UniProtKB/TrEMBL annotation:
It comes from Nitrosomonas ureae. It comes from the Bacteria. This is Methyltransferase domain-containing protein.
Amino acid sequence: MKPKIHDFVKIAKSLKLEAWLYFFIYRGFRLISKKYGVRISTNNYGYYPTQLEADDKYQLQLYDEYVNLLHSENSEQVLEIGSGAGGGLMHMQSRLPKSNFTGLDRCKEALKTCKYFFGEQQNNIKLYNSIQDIYADGKKFNAVMSVVLDDNYPVRRGDN
């Protein structure tokens, strides 16, 4: 049986090497971009078929569904938990330019990759590595979303 990428993530988690694995994944995204000019800014599976025109159109299609929901609810402040390299945030911000987006990811390499791809030109996107920092800034949200979370943010019994 051929191993899948999620098998490697499970093994890395069991060996307490998850941070190391994601360091190489996101660093690889940046190196591929530098060497081949290909931007990998999403790492979810995506869906077929799609009407989008983009290199990562299948992955972005799911974010388009979120855009429709956010637009219908007039959401102005949106938090994405597990924002990764930021491709989804950028896609949603391009579709909803009046909304402010906040990305939260515990992987510093993911946030570094997001900044590498998109720079500081996006005024409506703020990135955080810790929920405590979001709380300290006093941010509040109309919508909270997540595309791929896995068990990166476990909920303890008794938490609401």
